[in-house]
Amino acid sequence: MKVLITGVAGFIGSTAAEKLLDLGNDVVGIDAITDYYDQSIKRRNLSALDRDGFTFIEGDLNELPLAEIVGSVDAVVHLAGQPGVRSSWGADFGIYTRANVDATQRLLEAAKLGGNLRRFVYASSSSIYGQADVYPTDETMVPRPFSPYGVTKLAGEHLTSLYRENFGVPSVSFRFFTVYGPRQRPDMAFSRFLTAAEAGSPITVYGDGKQIRDFTFVDDIVAALIASIQTSGELPPVMNLAGGSSVSVLEVLDTISSVTGRELKLDFQPAVDGDVVKTGGSSVLARSSLSWSPTVDVASGIARQYAWMSAL
Ligand code: NAD
Ligand code: UGA
Known about the structure:
- It holds the Pfam family Epimerase.
- Helix 1 packs across helix 7 (218-230) and helix 6 packs across helix 8 (249-260).
- Helix content is 39%, strand content 18%.
- The chain is an alpha/beta fold.
- It has a single domain, classed as NAD(P)-binding Rossmann-like Domain (Rossmann fold, 3-Layer(aba) Sandwich), CATH 3.40.50.
């Protein structure tokens, strides 16, 4: 298969591209190399993909000739976007709408024209649920985002579903629950915690540290993305991908202390607007539709992220 991956220089995109190439597929990757975090990290992610079967197009989804590119592939995995819950307030909101809504609409217009796609995968987010009333939260729950980021991810998800309903774009949206593992973005919790632990510097904990996340290992996310493009049958329009072990930030820090063998210095700071108290997703639908279930628990996943970081 020839697969288009948008956001290919990022954390999840580069991991998905590497796995697809390992399996013998061709990958066309698009990335604008935005400056949300150190661009040299994205260049390093890309260098791991420099091999036969990989073509890189550097550019913005809001500007590239997408119909031509989408028309030449069998499947699209749309991971490009502006992530980050806590930084989505204020003047930067326009960055979020352009990257998460406008770019998604433009890509879907191209997918509508390219009649041969076997799948269009959209990277949605647990943040569309906001402060959920029921755990584990399933896909029937009414979305109620709690951050501007969540609003833009939900808008992208709705666009993806309505292009499926109106034009038959064979789309599926996966709601990823806080993803971690090798290449995790430097603004995310595990990345920051492990870096600070290594350096012996204080670790910033927002709020009381009792907030809970259903952390999901990146290889498990990639396995679901690949399963969805390998399957030719119809899939539900929206599915959760949740790691299956909801743990608190304080529990994570205990694990990080054991894995690194360091005593941690914690610096408690006020909770940040937009951060929810708890996420916990049901993956029953992904299990029945794709035979998918998470395989990596948080303790072994953190050990793998630490081993990767130590080898850099
Ligand atoms: P990332 O920032 O590492 O990767 C996103 C990539 O998209 C970046 O390399 C960026 O340069 C690129 N990009 C942004 N806007 C673009 C544009 N207009 N045109 C072309 N490229 C553009 O982020 P990630 O953590 O790998 O997340 C990937 C996707 O998954 C995002 O859409 C994010 O919202 C979603 N998601 C991530 C998580 C998580 O925990 N990491 C959870 C839920 C959903
Ligand atoms: C993550 C991603 O960053 C989003 O892009 C994604 O959409 C979202 O998951 C999701 O699942 O939908 P988040 O859950 O905030 O968002 O992930 P982390 O940045 O890893 O934070 C996890 C928890 O650690 C949060 O409660 C946060 O408050 C806390 N944290 C983070 C700290 O206490 N200190 C830090 O320095 C960083």
